[in-house]
Design brief:
By secondary structure, the chain is an alpha+beta fold. The protein has one domain: Nucleotidyltransferase, domain 5, CATH 3.30.420. It has two helices and four strands. The protein has a four-stranded mixed β-sheet with strand order 3-2-1-4, covered by helices on one side. The longest helix has 12 residues.
Length: 111
């Protein structure tokens, strides 16, 4: 029996230096994916692929924008990446929020 593909998912990521914790919920609020992901490019890309296989549209929120989340946020800067409909839902970052969300590069980290 295969997994049912949903129309939309919402993914929240708690980014950390050594690992990240991500969870995806569907339109009903049910958790459909939850996993600790080592801060490694291959593991991050695998996790993104797993999530993309679950829904046609994915909305992302990451709790920090900095060195700890750099590998995690890198796919956001790829123009062909379908994964990132929102990067950080924070007006000060310049990334769009849930309405009008579109893939775009992350702004430079402020010092």
């Amino acid at each position: 029996m295969g997994t049912v593909k949903r129309d939309e998912l919402w993914v929240g990521v708690d980014a950390g230096k050594g690992h990240h914790w991500g969870a995806a919920v569907d339109q009903a609020g049910a958790t459909v994916w939850s996993k600790k992901v080592v801060n490694d490019e291959t593991e991050i890309l695998t996790a993104i692929s797993e999530i993309l296989a679950l829904a046609d549209r994915v909305h992302w929120a990451v709790d920090i924008n900095g060195t700890a989340s750099a590998l995690l946020l890198a796919p956001c800067s790829r123009p062909t990446t379908r994964a990132w409909s929102t990067c950080l839902d924070e007006p000060s970052t310049g990334c769009p929020g849930p309405t009008g969300a579109r893939p775009r590069p992350m702004p430079a980290t402020r010092t």
